[in-house]
Amino acid sequence: xxxxxxxxxxxxxxxxxxxxxxxxxxxxxxxxxxxxxxxxxxxxxxxxxxxxxxxxxxxxxxxxxxxxxxxxxxxxxxxxxxxxxxxxxxxxxxxxxxxxxxxxxxxxxxxxxxxxxxxxxxxxxxxxxxxxxxxxxxxxxxxxxxxxxxxxxxxxxxxxxxxxxxxxxxxxxxxxxxxxxxxxxxxxxxxxxxxxxxxxxxxxxx
Length: 206
Known about the structure:
The structure is a single chain. This protein has helices spanning 2-17, 24-37, 81-85, 122-128, 190-199; strands at 62-65, 68-71, 79-80, 95-101, 107-114, 134-136, 141-145, 148-157, 165-173, 176-184, 202-203. The chain is of the alpha+beta class. The chain is globular.
């Protein structure tokens, strides 16, 4: 928690000394660190046990806003981080930033933006993987989930000590580029979370 607050303070100081309009990457870093700093500091629940079967724990729940839907654990709810960091610039259909966390210490983030005539979403990984606290921890893994061509990479992070692992992914749908990231207490939780989320993903064409 102290690390997250220190990172947040550093980012806010840097943004105060820099240009009046932070870059999209800086805006994402600042907003996410605000969210991470808000995660309670109570003793975490024991990490969930991974079942012996290859089937991951079912994810119930569905987020549907901004002309797309994506699955998420039933005990999590997405909120608009863009509006939290700047009430005059909330998320829109064209671009946005949402995040969610729960008592089991899972953190999920999703960003999107218009990307007409774009077929390669890898630039979104550069936005969502925060180079100050996140490290890619493996090779880029191309996945086919339904009709979605997805790029996934495992990560480690120092954003908060209770969530040192995770993963990030990016894909194109309906003229928009999407990116998703999770922080988890165990490395093997990230990819099943992504798969279950994308099994429920759909978007409207802009």
